[in-house]
Amino acid sequence: MAGHRTDEHPHGADRLCDAGDRVYSRAVRRGRVPRTDAEPVPCLLELALLHPDPDDMDWLVPTSPQEVMTRLLRGVYDEVSESHRRVGSAVAAFEWYAGLGRRIQASAMASASATLEGGAAIRVLDGLSRIQAAMDDATEACTGEVLTVQPGGIRREPELTEGLHRALALRSRGVRMRDLYTHVARHGQGLLNYLELMGDAVEARTLDEVVDRLILFDRTVAFIPASADHTIALELRHPALIDYFVTVFDRLWRLAIPVAAPLPDTGIEGISHREQSIAALLADGHQDAVIAERLGISVRTCRAHIARLSETLGAASRTQLGVRIAQVGLDSPSSRVPDVPAQLTPADQESPTVR
Fold first, then answer.
1. What is the pTM of this model?
2. How does pLDDT run across 239-259, given as a tens digit for each residue?
3. Pick the CATH number of 273-344 from 3.40.50.2300, 2.40.160.20, 2.30.29.30, 1.10.10.10
4. What's the CA gap between 10 and 24, in Å, rounded?
């Protein structure tokens, strides 16, 4: 986008520049445009007139003219005294765009962005500011229940405080919250402080590993990440998708352990619950980095646990460690394992660290 600064397009959505008018008109007529077409007119993305296609991020789909008009009028009516002219301008402009859109076949529109009563079934939120705004809107509309899955390890203070205002607003209205974390999160004082602050409004449980981040409001709208750096998210309102996410959450919830309850003993002296989880993932053939990510720990910490596991089981190599894990029953994270047989740890055998 070199050579096309955003300050070269000083206008609102109700009066597009010539370049923006051409690209947006083309998008409405065709249902979508290549992302490269919008590079000279960043105003279209900044004004949310175009957004990424959920099926192909190299394409942009237009926000429906009716939705744009509704959004504009909401702000305009807040300043009626000085905004009458803009109301008329917005209506006139987007009625013309809407006329273009009526010629698009219904099937083509559905493939670009399925729509349901009340809004888009799948909406791409590109940028942290838009994600936060959508989350704030969902929080304000929520009246009964919030379900969240929070992957990763110990929750840092910025992560916990970023959404604290939403959690407090929900608590003040009597909304119940259920949160799923990994077992590692139990060791963070920030999470314990958060749970103490929220009281009985929040119930938290933990698992060895959870799915990627998920937030569900009133079982009607869900948010999930759409990029590795979490700067793009999907807002989902399709009933089938919502039902699926609720089912996944409820099944994980039944398997999870309340934060206030201790983790179960592994049944093998010297092997912790976390090392049992690592052993099960090793048995499935996962590499150290994958295991660390799934359990919410660093690769260095993961390898330290593997080293202690090898020493406890008397394994002299990674291959031998896999055999030992299977012999003592550690290859299943939910199994109740027996004591380590004496023949697995001969007194004259060294137990070097396995990397």
1. 0.56
2. 999 999 999 999 999 988 898
3. 1.10.10.10
4. 16
